[in-house]
Amino acid sequence: MNNNSHLADRKYIVSGFFIVVAIVYICRLFYIQIVDEQYKLDARNNAFRNRTEYPLRGYIYDRNGKLLVQNVLSYDLLVTPKLVKDCDTMALCQVLEITKAEFLKKMKKASQAPNSPRKESIFEKQLSNKVYAALQEKLYRFKGFDVQSRTVRKYPRPVAAHLLGYVNEVTKEKAAKDPYYIEGDYIGASGIERGYETELRGKKGKQIVMVDVHNKTKGSYMNGFYDTAAVAGKPLFCSIDVDLQEYGEKLLKGKRGAIVAIEPSTGEILCLISAPGYDPNLLVGGKERSRNFTKLFYDSINLPLFNRALTAMYPPGSTFKLIDALIAQKDGLIDRSTVFPCHGGYPPMGGRPKCHPHPSTDLPGSIATSCNSYYSYVFCKIVDQKAFPNFVDGYNHWRDAVRSFGPGTKLGTDLPFDKPGNVPSVEYYNKVFGKNHWRSNTVVSLGIGQAELLLVPFQMANVVAIVANKGYFYTPHCIKGVGIEKALDKKFKEKHLTYVQEDKYYEVVHDGMQKCFDAGTATASKIPGIVACGKTGTAENPHGKDHAVFLAFAPRDKPKIAMVCFIENAGFGGTWSAPIVSLMIEKYLTGKVTRPDLEKRMMEADLIGGKNLLGKKTVEKKKTH
């Protein structure tokens, strides 16, 4: 009995042991299959791929419907590090034309945050057609790798690089701030691409695809039931005339400077040129883009990436006299017949600022001959007028009136990096000279657009548009419409009034500007058959030869174009800037140029020592006699 009882107890112990083991196995299987996602994830990753479907970036057209920016197909090589097994590393390196060290570095990056060993990420971006073709044949040998299609920008006409801007990769910091992006995505970095990034980028889609054991795509999971389609970016309709833009870039070749043209009646930018420039196609692609960007970035002589039209600040020189002439008339200090003496310079300051020889003249004549002495008197009259017993109040009145024309303020354009320029304040001069230790004659050079007065070409183009409009402007902008509906921000339809609004004062200034072409400092640039109004300027440059400046609008009645041209270290505005502006106005208004000799001289002129856009010496042909 006792022995049988002992055996019976052992039977229960053994049975209990197997039951416990079975329970443990069942629990473990339940955990693996139901609770723990790791094995399911590994299994799913062997059969499915979650793909981001990148949208087509919005196309950009010029004002006449000509294509400026389009998209072309490109391919990225993706990797999921956890799935990379028995990979022929050397063969892959040969196809991609990289070293093993580069391969290991890329694999390490793909495994680290924000990437993950189980997460697909970009291994090599923007494969060339040659590499892509070779890779497709051998992709089955590289487990864990796959290819996704994307699009990159292409520019049918290699112009307007600074206006259009370029696309860059999203940084880790940007991706952390904006959930739409992940590191490696593309984002507008400058110009229109940056200013209208939200409209251009579209909306990403998602796709789940099935792959076989050889890593080949077998189709969409459940016929795409869980997929979401990408939404293409909106097309942009740009205000620029690409033919005018291209022509201006040819005229400015071999020179450092900027040209900006605006349609006065709308504020639409007709062209925006910065020279030296570059072919925007240089900043598209993978390795080629990186090499080109480095060359452009480190060209410290020509600074081709620097947008002179929008961010370079220059003294406006004599072109600024137009504003002083309008303010002084408005304040009742001068009129059409007012004459001031000039004996080669401003007499009260011993002939400084200096002036070129010419007879004393009235207000329109002072604009045509660009008399420095005249506008030194005008500036002092505005600042010292009896309506302001306190000199500081008079100066602030002048400064506020000037700022109503745009200088010293951000215009609020739709392009990024809008600089305000500089109209020096009372506080600034108090620091420089001491409080109550400066007067109008101390800063009289402001009256002729010199001293600490600085404007960007973009602002000066807006000033001449104001003069053409006789007292108002619309915020300059480069996009006429967004999307098929061609919507436009309401702020670009708002009229801004300046301190001077009376037509009679502008008519006097227009007379002087027309006389500048007819019998003044721009006579050699008179446009056949077109009544135009212009003003020359020579902006003093303490760092070298003076800058050449010219602004104009045309025709005088119902102006269609207002523009400015700055050329660095070129001397007199009438010598270089005026001919370029007159050629561009003629081209825009008539569609042709009737002065081929002048055109040839401007296009062939090299004012920067034979330097091309990458800073290398160009080959000069020997002239034969």
Summarize it.
The protein has 2 domains: 45-75 and 149-238, Penicillin-binding protein 2a (Domain 2) (Alpha-Beta Complex), CATH 3.90.1310.10; 242-604, 3-Layer(aba) Sandwich (Beta-lactamase), CATH 3.40.710. Helix content is 36%, strand content 17%. It is built from 21 helices and 18 strands.
Mean pLDDT metric? 88
Give the CATH level 1 class of the largest domain: Alpha Beta
Backbone structural class: alpha+beta
Q: Per CATH, what is the topology of the largest domain?
A: Beta-lactamase
How would you sum up the major sheet? 6 strands, mixed
Number of strands: 18
Q: What level of helicity do the residues show?
A: 25-40%
- Which parts are unreliable, with pLDDT below 50 for 5 consecutive residues or more? 39-43, 610-625
Rg, rounded, reads 34 Å
Distance between the amino and carboxyl termini:
136 Å
- State the domain count: 2
Quickly count the helices. Answer: 21
CATH superfamily of the largest domain: DD-peptidase/beta-lactamase superfamily
Beta-strand fraction estimate: 15-25%
Sum up the overall morphology in one term: elongated
CATH A-level architecture of the largest domain: 3-Layer(aba) Sandwich
